[in-house]
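dumping this here before i forget
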Amino acid sequence: MVPYIKILYSLIKITLLKLFSSANINTTGLQIFSYNTRLSFGKQSIITLGNKIISDGRLSIISDNNSILTLGNNIYFNEGCMISCKSKIVIGSGCQFGPSVKIFDNDHDFDSKHGVKHTHKTTPIIIGNNCWIGSNAIILRGSKIGNNCVIGAGTIIKNDIPDNTIITQQRNLIIRNIN
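structure:
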């Protein structure tokens, strides 16, 4: 019974966004968003949601004015994920996101004279099909992740990642006695 309620909830949420938002929202199939999912779509943004997008827990998707956000089919978001889209983010079909994954196609513009500005630098992000993004991974602007990739927990991505690769970051555990 609960999955049907979530499907109905998601359908109502998307329908209301289509009616009251200036965004161009295209959907194919059903989405199953948790009750804590936050969807914020800006005016003139283009949103494409594939079939069977599932969020378990808090998912925050922010797509600003004039941005393009495309989510393929059969995508799973675990607890605490966030997508911040100011230009373009494309996520292929069959991707799974562990807890607290963050995806930002933007960062604040800053300089030594004015410090942090209210403007942003943006570069599109593309994530291929059938990728697994581990817990607490961060995907930064300009990243291109190929098909069938695994991004290890806690990894920060700001590169091109070729198809069929596993990416992890090395961290050394330093253990010292207290003197």
